[in-house]
Description:
The chain has about 200 residues and is mainly alpha-helical. The protein has helices spanning about 1-45, 50-75, 80-110, 115-200. The chain contains 4 helices and no strands.
Amino acid sequence: LATSGLRQCSAAFGSVMEDRYANIRAVAALSDDVGVVVLAVRNFVMLNDPAKRAQELTTLKDTRQAINDDYKTLAAQIQDEDGRQRLVALQARGEECLKALDSLLATAAQDDRAKASELVQGELQKAQLDYMGALANFTRVQEKAMERAAGDAQATGRWLQIVLWGAAAIGLLLGGATAWWVTRSITRPLRDAVAALRELEAG
């Protein structure tokens, strides 16, 4: 029973650390990468220096690849169907945001700052807010799943503690009963032998 409890406790703890916590880390990385994209786009639109603009484009390209990697990591880690469906919906919002981003970058590359500024405050801002809202919601769902898994692990740990205390109490009772029986099985023959010797001595 205790071994079974240890296995259950280990599985519950593994669920928290290997699945839920890993998902939270991957979502945090995704959120960070999206923030880098937002900042790089803002810088690209605002900067005049071609070298700095090229540097921001490199950052955008690298970070977009990192975002793709983040999605692959999440797709491999998320086990439940609801989580997978939410991830697909989040990725669709991300694609909408990237389309608006590409449109903005094409406009900014033509040095049409008025149009680029209009896109930043209109289409891109809406797509970005929708995406960030979906990302925040996805993060909350993953955090709640982690909290549930942690609660399950704690409940399993408490159950295991009760089982171990019970096993210890049973062991103590069995040990006491065994000691009583062994002591009695030794002392009774000795008492009988002493009584027989006294009878012989008394004659």
